[in-house]
Design goal:
about 250 residues; alpha/beta; Rossmann fold; 5 helices
């Protein structure tokens, strides 16, 4: 028997009454009887609406739409959520690289190991690239990486380095009042991010507003809205200009 979390322990008597009622009804109908030892009290799920993590649901949905719009022949992703990788692989083949490579077995997905401080690609070689809800962690030691106060800036320089002329970068990170929440993540001002990619142009910007629950995804957002957030999420499409013809 798996008991509810301590914060939900007050619901245990109601759960036990429901178990007894279900068992009695099952016996009367000749249905399979549950055993008390097999129960798992999921009492926190009986809510009026289904909750979800707004930043991860919205940014993955945003990115999949952008990838569907661009229709690249192949896409390279660096450490983004596997929900995005597995779903977006229905749009095009995806090469997914992570500091801690996952054992992900999906059609159209290849998996490899990489360090954002030293990406294994030649300069200007990747035409379609993403790195989403990742950069804010680099250098904070959260995932076993070395401590480096400039790790995030070095990683952004790597993304800019490998992006091909004419190529697109889908980039997502927390935004709002700038601060470091050691060793979880960093939060950035809009201008900090655009300044970190001096060779790239902003093709579009979307904003996921404050709040893990009840946040809004704002397409074509005004960058000035970022300063109003405490812990929002910025979603950029960056584009590297093509070199002018000689």
């Amino acid at each position: 028997m798996h008991l509810p979390r301590l914060s939900q322990f007050h619901r245990l008597p109601g759960f036990l009454r429901a178990f007894a009622a279900y068992r009695s009804a099952a016996a009367a109908l000749g249905a399979r009887l549950p055993r008390l030892g097999d129960t798992r009290a999921m009492v926190e799920d009986a809510t009026a609406t289904t909750g979800f993590d707004s930043q991860y649901v919205y940014h993955c949905g945003w990115a999949a739409r952008e990838l569907a719009r661009m229709k690249p022949e192949r896409h390279v992703d660096i450490s983004s959520a596997l929900w995005f990788v597995s779903t977006a692989s229905a749009i095009c083949p995806i090469d997914h690289y992570d500091y801690r490579p996952p054992a992900l077995d999906m059609p159209n997905v290849t998996v490899g190991a990489s360090d954002l401080l030293n990406l294994p690609f030649a300069d200007a070689s990747v035409p379609s690239l993403s790195c989403m809800h990742v950069i804010e962690h680099v250098g904070l030691g959260r995932y076993g990486d070395a401590l480096d106060p400039l790790g995030d800036r070095k990683a952004m320089a790597q993304l800019q380095r490998v992006l091909a002329p004419g190529g697109a970068l889908l980039f997502v990170t927390p935004v709002g009042k700038p601060r470091v929440v050691f060793n979880a993540h960093r939060i950035y001002a809009y201008e900090e991010i655009t300044a970190a990619f001096p060779e790239l142009e902003v093709e579009s910007f979307a904003l996921i507003t404050d709040g893990r629950h009840g946040a809004k995804l704002v397409f074509n957002a005004d960058p000035a809205q970022v300063a109003e957030q405490k812990y929002g999420c910025g979603c950029w499409v960056f584009r590297k200009p093509r070199k002018a013809a000689a």
